[in-house]
Write a structure and sequence with these properties.
alpha+beta, Immunoglobulin-like, 14 helices, 41 strands
Length: 681
């Protein structure tokens, strides 16, 4: 059955078998010619080098797995780092014959600089009648490499699935104490006395169709003892009951995997630069498919932590001829940064596709790296794989690339994109270390930039778009006559940005930006002789952004056209472009040629203002909007203001009162018979 331990070991074996074990000449030549992808080296002003690898079609020949998908993503904020991972694994039916079970486990970790505590819940259910649950807690002390785990285990077994009856089962249960003593002695001997297993059957119950066993176990000892146990060749029945595991155990990569695993854990325990603060892992297996997900939070200097571990384990590949080239590229004391690490790995039908980004190397000679890559292109030439050199930036300085003035001996590139990217086919590259790296002032305004050059056709005309951004473009831009759509993927920074040049001949009117939810985003616009430059900063992971241009929808209206002096006049209006309200823009309201107020546009593109009429006559009212060197004015509306008019209801009331009083006086003088009746009031 697949356990979390087995999953981890399989992933390590996959990594080791590809990265560390020597290949035959036939393997290198036959697999390399099918690989499609790109190796990108990005040069920064501080002389560090970013590495991005995308490769598809790597033939591995791993028979143990049918499918493997792995995604690891890092997020950094100050000295706090989060690593999120998801994996799916489907063992080959050849090695995982019995898939009629389900498995789930949850692990929770809490850590400090010196110690890690953990707890777990594990459940295994088999259709034939095996139910196992385990609740554990433990700790690992880094300084002493001391490990301690306590577990309460419940096992429920069906007599029918075992092919026995209740009497035979009870006899078997009575032999369990003896078996446990033998197991303790075996573990003690295999670990050189460095591991101690306390295991006891606390009690059990028997029923007519099954028995339930309750165990308590305590495993304690050192990391060295655990290593000796695994290297001893002991095969525990519960762990090694599948053909797949036996095949892994007998594979040539096993010893290298163990060495890598334990050397990494040992060095990580020694260091105090970074540590796990919290984390969790969830693993679920059903019908042979394994799904694993988790999150780990780290504090401290994670880059120094990773660098020290890398050099502590580098001896594992020092004597391997093919992969010793990695050490030639790096050279001690090269530092590695994984703050923005992103790994996407897919294995299917023995074909591996890999995308790795977010790795940065510091204290490295870039020209030595280029010489080593050139040597590698002669040893493993690939016609469908490319090498890309890019210049990047910080907030004030950017790196530009160019070919040397005399480049007869340097390999001719496939493509040169502006001053920021040169691309070669990865085959027999000569003298690429002669590429000129030049530091200049950053006039683009984007840090950690990536340059993209796109050639787009619209109405039969060719337009060249230059895009500088620290986001990743997920697809080619979509160009229309009045807009440009970018689909972006953020890298987890607090703020991301782009700066794009668009030819002047394509743009008319004002330029704005909008998110995929039609929320207005105000860009900074500059204009040169032939093109507009559009700069926009935005929050990470934004999705798609539309750059739109054209004449705005700009109009106003009054709530009424005739008022009296002292009455309130309410003006409402709209400022939009392509139905996107220009939130936050300022509008000037003008009455009879005199500006009376600055009005801010609301989120839906509307604005309003009220004022009192102070003089008679006709008021000419309009609004003005200025942006990007352009001035727009609405059509004028006219409001008539007249002298103050006494309210109609008041006039009527006075007239009725006067008529009533006159009637009473006339009746009084005539001594009308109605007079006594009126006197009652």
């Amino acid at each position: 059955m697949i356990t979390p331990k087995l999953l981890v070991i399989i992933l390590i074996l996959l990594y080791v078998s590809y990265m560390y074990l020597p290949r035959s000449p036939y393997y290198a030549s036959s697999s390399a010619e099918h690989i499609v992808g790109d190796l990108t080296l990005r040069f920064y002003p501080d002389e560090s080098v970013g590495v991005k690898l995308k490769a598809e079609g790597i033939q591995l020949g791993i028979e143990e797995l049918d499918i493997l998908k792995l995604r690891i993503r890092a997020e950094a904020e100050g000295e706090h780092y989060k690593y999120v991972f998801n994996a799916s694994l489907l063992p080959s039916k050849v090695y995982e014959a019995n898939t009629n079970y389900s498995f789930s486990s949850n692990w929770v970790f809490e850590g400090s600089r010196d110690e890690i505590e953990f707890s777990s819940n594990v459940s295994i259910f088999k259709a034939e009648g095996l139910n196992l649950t385990s609740v554990s807690k433990g700790r690992y002390i880094k300084v002493s490499r001391f490990l301690e785990v306590e577990s309460n285990i419940t096992i429920s077994l069906s007599y029918i699935s075992m092919g026995i009856n209740q009497t035979i089962a009870e006899g078997f249960i009575r032999t369990i104490p003896t078996v446990m003593k033998l197991l303790k002695m075996l573990i003690d001997a295999s670990s050189g006395g460095a591991l101690s297993l306390g295991l006891q059957l606390e009690y059990y119950t028997t029923e007519h169709d099954r028995c339930i066993l309750y165990f308590f176990s305590k495993l304690s000892g050192s990391l060295i003892g655990l290593r000796k146990l695994l290297e001893s060749g002991i095969e525990l029945p519960i762990v090694c009951d599948t053909p797949g595991w036996r095949q892994v155990r007998r594979s040539t990569a096993w010893d290298t995997a163990l060495r890598l695993f334990f050397e990494t854990i040992d060095k990580a325990s020694e260091l105090r630069y970074a540590w796990i603060t919290s984390g969790w892992i969830h693993c679920k297996t059903e019908n042979g498919l394994v799904n694993v997900s988790g999150i780990f939070d780290f504090s401290g200097d994670i880059d120094r932590y990773a660098t020290e571990i890398m050099w502590a384990t580098s001896y594992l590949i020092r004597d391997l001829q093919e992969y010793s080239i990695l050490l030639k590229i790096l050279k001690y004391p090269t530092k590695i940064s994984i703050k923005n690490l992103d790994i996407d790995l897919n294995l299917w039908n023995n074909t591996l596709n890999v995308c790795i980004s977010g790795i940065k190397l510091a204290d490295i000679d870039p020209y030595n790296m280029l010489r080593t890559v050139s040597d590698l292109s002669h040893k493993i030439p690939m016609d469908k794989f490319t090498l890309s050199l890019e210049g990047s930036s910080n907030s004030t300085i950017m790196v530009e690339l160019s070919m040397p003035d005399l480049f007869e001996n340097i390999s001719k590139p496939m493509k040169i994109e502006g001053k920021h990217r040169i691309i070669w086919m990865f085959r027999n590259l000569d003298s690429i270390d002669r590429v000129v790296l030049r530091k200049v002032r950053n006039t683009i305004g984007v840090s950690d930039l990536t340059f993209y050059e796109y050639r787009c056709k619209l109405d039969g005309k060719l337009y060249i778009l230059n895009i500088y951004t620290n986001s990743t473009l997920l697809s080619d831009p979509i160009l229309r006559s009045d807009s440009l759509t970018l689909t972006l993927k953020g890298t987890g920074r607090c703020t991301e940005a782009f700066n794009i040049s668009i030819p002047n001949s394509l743009i008319g009117g004002i330029i704005a930006c909008a998110s995929d939810s039609e929320v207005y985003m105000k860009p900074k616009i500059s204009k040169s002789l032939d093109e507009y430059w559009i700069y926009l900063s935005y929050i990470p992971n934004f999705g798609s952004i539309d750059i739109i241009w054209g004449e705005p929808e700009f109009r106003i209206e009054s709530d009424r056209n005739d008022v009296s002096i002292g009455d309130e006049v309410k003006i409402t209006g709209v400022l939009r472009i392509h139905k996107v309200g220009l939130k936050g823009e300022n509008i000037t309201l003008i009455v009879d040629g005199e500006p009376i107020s600055e009005i801010q546009v609301a989120g839906n593109g509307t604005f309003s203002y009220s004022f009192k009429a102070v003089k008679t006559g006709a008021l000419n009212i309009w609004a003005r909007y200025s942006s990007q060197g352009l001035i727009y004015e609405t059509e004028k509306i006219r409001v008539s203001v007249s002298e103050y008019r006494f309210p109609y209801i008041a006039i009527v009331t006075v007239a009725v009162a006067a008529a009533s009083l006159t009637t009473i006086l006339v009746l009084y003088k005539r001594r009308s018979p109605y007079l006594p009746f009126l006197k009652r009031f």
